[in-house]
Amino acid sequence: MIRYCQGCGAELQTIDPNKKGFIPSIDEKKESLYCKRCFRLNNYNEMPKILSTNEEYDKIIADLLEKKGLIVLIVDLFDFTGTFIPRIIDKLRNKTVLLVANKLDLLPKSVKPSHIVEWIESMVNRMFFRVAAIHVVSSKKGYYLDDLMNTIDFLRQDQDVYFMGCANVGKSSLINALIKRFTPKEDDIISTSPIPGTTLNSIKIPFFLDNKALIDTPGLINENNILSNILPASYDKILPKGEIKPITYQLQKGNMIFIGAMASFSLLEGDGVSFTCYFAADVTVHRRKMDGSDEFLQKHGGELLTPPTREEFVNLEYEEKVFEVSSKKKEDIVISGLGFISVNKKAKVLVKAIKNTDVFKRGAII
Ligand SMILES: Nc1nc2c(ncn2[C@@H]2O[C@H](COP(=O)(O)OP(=O)(O)OP(=O)(O)O)[C@@H](O)[C@H]2O)c(=O)[nH]1
Ligand SMILES: [Mg+2]
């Protein structure tokens, strides 16, 4: 009988320790088994990088989309635009989709969830995408899980519920949170980690009284998220651990700020412009003049300006992009996976970020 890992969904095998699903031996009597990768992740917090390819991902998702069920599309509130992407939503256009924005705990508490939902609605309409409902939650803190469950019960119509979305948005964490909230189980069942690509295959967890299930799926790895362009050693610093405390800098023309050695924002035109920074507390933000900034970066990258480490910094390449912020409304400039700055008035901003990382402008979320 083929057995699957309860943590990541990989088919278990006892032959190759370097491939997915490796387990030294299969105990047929045990109801749930975990592969060596998940065992190490859960016990020692370390994860060998074994990833699914994009083709494997497309095949798994295509097979699941043949089945009947409610789709819960999960996005990361801290990287909305980087996780609400055509490569995913185009697959879901003729399905009933419940959109869930996770990681609410990272945004300042002063921001009202109803305001965030309105903002999401405008982003969704812009993509000509239709959703049955929008929820904001935190799987980490358990915020608004009851509301979410009510909507799931209402929409699923006696069918299974599929959790889909980009890697790292918190699909597996949300399923674990729902299981702990609505069943007697007290432990996390599915493996989760800050490294994109933790879940390798679909994982079916019987959940409803009618025997229908919650189904976790692997995440699409976004190559243009900063995590794809930096070594895992820095993930811990880049991913915020709790509510982000915004810091505002007043900039004159010719001033700039460094975001570690990963990105910089320079004010080319505009005066007395405020840049409000939303980044993890462990990312250094440093303000200075644009004059001599290249030499400054070369000297301090990976030391005063971290992450990344000095070792990684010396091999980094950057790309530049210029954004015009209008005088009419506040706008955010986002670096996918890293965070964003909010610009309060008319300005021309030069953004330099690690090569292949998406940088874009949007209406301010806060
Ligand atoms: N702050 C915060 N972090 C969260 C939340 N939910 C998940 N995370 C973190 O986000 C990271 C990814 O979580 P996972 O549940 O593994 O994400 P996933 O979508 O299943 O990822 P893949 O399996 O790689 O597709 C982990 O470090 C989680 O601890 C949340 O509500 N708030
Ligand atoms: Mg997962």
Q: Could you characterize what this model shows?
A:
The protein is an alpha+beta fold. The protein folds into 3 domains: 1-50, no CATH class; 52-222, P-loop containing nucleotide triphosphate hydrolases (Rossmann fold), CATH 3.40.50.300; 235-363, no CATH class. Helix content is 23%, strand content 25%. It is built from 10 helices and 16 strands. The strands form 3 sheets. The chain has a 6-stranded mixed beta sheet, sandwiched between helices. The structure holds guanosine-5'-triphosphate and magnesium ion. Magnesium ion (MG) binds at residues 171-172, 198-199, 216, 219.
First-to-last CA distance: 52 Å
What helical percentage do the residues reach?
10-25%
Q: H/E order of the elements?
A: HHEHHEHEHEHEEHEEEEEHHEEEEE
Low-confidence stretches: none
Helix count, DSSP H or I runs of 4 or more residues:
10
Q: Main sheet, how many strands, which sense, barrel?
A: 6 strands, mixed
User: Under the CATH scheme, which class of the largest domain?
Assistant: Alpha Beta
- The CATH superfamily title of the largest domain: P-loop containing nucleotide triphosphate hydrolases
Overall spatial form:
globular
* Gyration radius from CA atoms, angstroms: 22 Å
**CATH topology label of the largest domain:** Rossmann fold
CATH architecture of the largest domain: 3-Layer(aba) Sandwich
Classify the beta-strand content into a percent band: 15-25%
Number of strands: 16
**Average pLDDT taken over every residue:** 95
- Secondary-structure-based class equals alpha+beta
* Distinct ligand kinds: guanosine-5'-triphosphate, magnesium ion
